[in-house]
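Side project, low priority. Logging it here so it doesn't get lost.
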Amino acid sequence: MRQSTGWIIIVVLCASFVLLLTRVGAEVNEVETLSEAFDTNIELGELFLSSNSYILDSEGRLVSEIYKDTNRIYKPFDQIPQLFIDSFVSTEDRRFYEHEGYDTAGIARAFVANTSSSETEQGGSTITQQLVRNIYLSHEQTYQRKLSEILYSRELEKRYTKDDILELYLNSIFFGHQAYGIEAASQYYFSKSSNDLSLAQVAFITAIPNNPSFYDPVNHQDRTEERKQWVLKKMLEEETITEEEYIEATEETIELAVQTRTDMFPDYVTYVRDEFRDLVAEKEGFADQLNNATTPEQKEDINAELDARIQRLYEEGIAIHTALKPLMQKKAVQSVVSRIPNEDIQGSLAVIDNESNKLIAITGGKGYEKFNFNRGYQDFRQPGSSIKPLLSFAPYIDTTGVGPSAKIDSKNKCYPDGGSKEYCPKNYNNKEVGSVTLNQALASSYNTTAVALLNNVGLEKAYSYLDPFHFEKVSDSDKHHLASALGGFEKGVSPLELTRAYTTFAHNGVYSPAHGITEVVDGGGNVIYSWDEPETQVWSQSTNDKMRQMLANVVKSGTGRNINVNAPYVGGKTGTSNSYHEIWFVGLTDQYTAGILIGRDQGQEGPKSIESFAQSNPHQRIFNDIMN
């Protein structure tokens, strides 16, 4: 009784409202128009529907879908199948192309149909009203909301074409299971595009929005099937399908193929999400603002604004194209797991393609879960002897012009190191050497040679060779101590940073930072972001050729002799921090550069030795795995 009374009131009010608009419009020309009053008092704003964003691999294949609670794949009107237009117009608003946003006759018709049935078969709302309700208003059942809905709908019809409204409507409808819009629903329930659905499947999906919980195909497919038949009947009545098509569709068996959310390669995706944030910060000036901020509060506000900007971009529906090589990524993850069976020891690595100078794989650690601490680029450790080629040997050769066969006095001695202090480096196992060639010194990783070279070049000059690499945690205090020749940094470097730096040996002494993102495009396929690729000649090509020869000797007869890779060129350098807290290998072929770090996570008790485990050379075995 109360429902019938409510519908009567709505019909009367709507009729009165239409009559009032007509008479007022005819009689009062000098009074402010309804549209003007609407603009003054109601903020309609620009219509915006969020859309999913995507991360793609190097071949353009989907790796990860980005959305929060709304899974929507936005479909422009010219790509919407006509069957969906016909099904929704036939069932929801058959006079859609005739009315101006509200349909008084339709409301009356719905009242008659619903009062003669035990269920609510028809709603009095037009497609435009439903769109308004989905975007601007709540779904509460009140007369005030209903009148507001009509007012909004009338104005919406004046501002947008029928095609525009249908486009927005068919992209905004909720189909259950976080799916909004016909494309997301098609992908979710049938694992294919809306353009590839049969008439029966279209009617099946059209049945859901009337009550997504009641007509949920996953849990109540029989109910959805029943309403699908009703949808087909309405389409037949409206003559949008033929009798033959109707019969064929009613007899078709519907088989669901529910598609789960695509979200692969958590190590790489986590890195790309952070890199995208850095890319936007650089391109839109946030990075400069953060550098110029003087208080923590200012930085917090800038970061909040940047995060809001990133979220807006994700909601606009962008595609982040990356250099990810899935096979290499899988191999890297598998190798870390298989080569480091010890539960309390972790490993990470980064792999860069030398030809494209792009990051093609990165691992965050064994058992990595998305958005957790990623050891591949967030773990800063002492690099040990792996820093020697960059800080001691290449700068010395570049400033003196000598070759690998040049000899250097490498006997034990002490050096002034910070005022009255002295620094007295020792070789592994306290081995004493005299005058040795640079080639032998790097292959055997003599500490005394590395310190002698750094002292000869000078700390300031040697560190200028590291400047192009922009090591994030290398501080000014590191630049004042000769111990840095052996990797004795205050905070250290990450595997990604060190791997990037070693790509210089693959590019004739030229450095350009390798990234994972190749380009970012909007929904229309337009490139909106890409990295600038500045190049810096760090050392001469002659120096680079000599260093490549020496790095190859490390693999052939030095500390890297467990490397066994079938490639025309293989070179690299091992690294061990004090007390075997970490072990490194950074190496390259003509095709790839890779850096591997192994060590225990640093807890409150501080770093722990992995010396016994290190004897099996797991870092070099991992390099063999991924390069072969």
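Brief comment: Residues 505 and 544 are 6 Å apart (CA to CA).
Revisit when time allows.
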